[in-house]
Design a protein that fits this description.
Blueprint: H1 2-21, H2 29-39, H3 48-60, E1 66-71, E2 83-88, H4 90-103, H5 115-118, E3 121-127, E4 137-142, E5 161-163, H6 167-170, E6 181-188, E7 196-206, E8 209-219, H7 221-225
Antiparallel strand pairs: 1-2, 1-8, 2-3, 3-6, 4-7, 5-6, 7-8
Helix pairs in contact: 3-4
């Protein structure tokens, strides 16, 4: 077993270097300018001390998760213990990269952390709404506001980019979080605060008329209080 680990360690380490250097998914031309304003804002990036803290946290063990607790309906009935999705902050992305590098005996240094990893955006990984076929729609809404059935769907923020694969998570070393993962999207970090729901949904024709099948998530107050 030890010989096998020694043999594959250089390969894994090389893969991690790729993970650290590859940019996030390409943006559409319509998104490029506002996204660049967010990604290049120096006042919102992780400072050197925060980067070092994130590296130290990842080196100590598997990073924690910020869970979007599932809200079972579009009405405001509170969150369940079931996860609708996960949120990856800049510090959490750095911590995951440091954790993976620590596993292969090549500790991550601050100089190796690319700018995209520390940019002031959050990655949101959401599970699929029941019966969804294809990519669901996304909305950022005040708590309890339904997604059915206005067109266009009101939303407090549009994603900077959207992916239907786990590739954006793999770039910084996070595993596939759900067997029914449907979408990964990036949002400006400023949208996450109390009273906000993140919803993946698709429109359906029900027996009573048009409706939305939702996967609605809400951050716990405890997570927002300890946001890193």
């Amino acid at each position: 077993m030890l010989r096998s680990l020694v043999a594959v360690a250089p390969l894994i380490a090389a893969m991690m270097i790729v993970v650290l250097l590859v940019e996030p998914p390409a943006l559409t031309p319509a998104d490029r300018i506002p996204a660049l304003r967010v990604l290049t804002s120096p006042s919102l990036r992780l400072d050197p001390e925060a980067i070092q803290d994130a590296i130290a946290r990842g080196a100590q063990g598997r990073p924690p998760s910020y869970v979007l607790q599932r809200v079972q309906t579009s009405s405001d009935r509170g969150s369940s213990t079931e996860a609708a999705g996960l949120v990856y902050t800049p510090a959490l992305r750095v911590a995951w990269a440091a954790y993976r590098r620590q596993q292969v005996g090549r500790p991550l240094t601050a100089a190796e952390v690319p700018l995209w990893m520390t940019s002031p955006v959050v990655y949101v990984a959401l599970r699929s709404p029941a019966g969804a076929a294809g990519r669901p729609s996304l909305a950022v809404l005040p708590t309890g506001l339904p997604t059915c059935c206005r067109l266009p769907q009101p939303t407090l923020a549009k994603p900077i980019w959207v992916s239907t694969t786990t590739e954006p998570l793999a770039r910084f070393g996070a595993p596939d979080p759900f067997t029914d993962l449907s979408i990964v999207a990036a949002y400006p970090i400023a949208i996450f605060e109390a009273g906000i729901d993140i919803v993946a949904f698709h429109r359906i024709d029900s027996a009573t008329g048009p409706a939305s099948a939702e996967m609605r998530g809400r951050l716990r107050h405890a997570d927002l209080a300890d946001w890193r």
